[in-house]
Amino acid sequence: MAIKQVIRMGHPVLRQIAKELTKEEILSEEIKSLIVDMQDTMEAEGGIGIAAPQIAVSLQTAIIELPENSERYGTLDSSAKYIIFNPKITPLTSELQGFWEGCLSVPGLRGFVEREKKVRIEYLDENAVEQVIEPEGFLATVFQHELDHLFGKLYIDRIKDTTLISYNEEFEQFNS
Length: 176
Ligand code: ZN
Description:
There is one protein chain. The chain is α+β, with helices and mostly antiparallel strands. The chain has one domain: Peptide deformylase (Peptide Deformylase). The chain has helices at 23-26, 29-45, 137-148, 168-174, and strands at 49-51, 61-64, 69-70, 74-75, 82-91, 96-101, 109-116, 119-124, 130-133, 165-167. The longest helix has 17 residues, at 29-45.
């Protein structure tokens, strides 16, 4: 168990397409301990999701867990804990929704991002069992944000209106 350093925008690993894992790899001790490290790091940083590339490991795995209360996002509907490997994402609507997103790899900032309201995600769980989930609303945004990390994308890339980027302090002062 260890809290790892979260790498920041500018680190090349955040721009790589991460490698898929085999079922054998997913079940290995190395990957189990990677997941524990990701979980510890996410909790220490107060995140609601983390992807392996954010701790400089270029593998297709991410964890998402919405707590009931988040320092960064306020009151949320809590979610199950999702441990995701090798996801395939399909939009289920062309309808978009916007949220102010933040990212452990882009500290101090927030930006307004529009994404599909509902998506289907096929993935392997921590037991290497195939799963399908169809998140909607804020959870759909969180999935898309985290899974973007596995394909070399950051939320910053998806901001259409750059006037809607703010430091957290100014956001608290002027937007809430
Ligand atoms: Zn992020």
